[in-house]
Design goal:
6 strands; mainly beta
Length: 91
């Protein structure tokens, strides 16, 4: 299902990965102790500007800062919209 949203200029729409629910040793993490995910999948990309050419594309898995972007809810799902500069790496 395609989203009816198109980020402007150098902005990117990201669907965050689900937060970890269990540690490597098998201990379940309660909702109050879960950390915000810092990894996600690019869902939509703006066109860039005359000075900025976009390097990420739809489908890329990326790392971003813990407090980067603005949270929004579209069609019942949580997303982040941020500038491409806030993305730290493509995985």
């Amino acid at each position: 299902m395609a989203l009816n949203i198109k980020p402007l200029s150098d902005r990117v729409l990201i669907e965050p990965m689900a937060a970890e629910t269990k540690t490597a040793s098998g201990i379940f993490i309660p909702d109050t102790a879960k950390e915000k995910p810092q990894k996600g999948t690019v869902v939509a990309v703006g066109n860039g500007t005359k000075d900025i050419t976009m390097t990420v594309k739809v489908g890329d898995e990326v790392l971003y800062g813990k407090y980067a972007g603005t949270e929004l809810k579209l069609e019942g799902k949580d997303y982040l919209i941020m500038r491409e500069d806030d993305i730290l790496a493509i995985i």
